[in-house]
Write a structure and sequence with these properties.
single chain; Glutaredoxin; Glutaredoxin_subgr
Length: about 90
Amino acid sequence: MVPITLYTKSTCPFSRKAKQLLDEKGVRYEEIAIDLNPSKMDEMLAASGGRATVPQIFIAGRHLGGSDELQKLEDTGQLDALLERPGAQPSL
């Protein structure tokens, strides 16, 4: 399985939604809760091109965006391919 990283906040419903989708798919991911570890905020901003909202989702080191983008990939059938082939180019 490809590496997945989520920058989240523990109180964010969009973070919970993204984690729930990945949990339902049975994939593992690294969660970095920026509200519990504020020093990671700068890391998230740098990696996401300055986006300060959460979640910020990365699959195989590639920035996908947030919960809406993850759900769009799922709805269009592209998420499974991306999880299996990290080089796949989804159309967001």
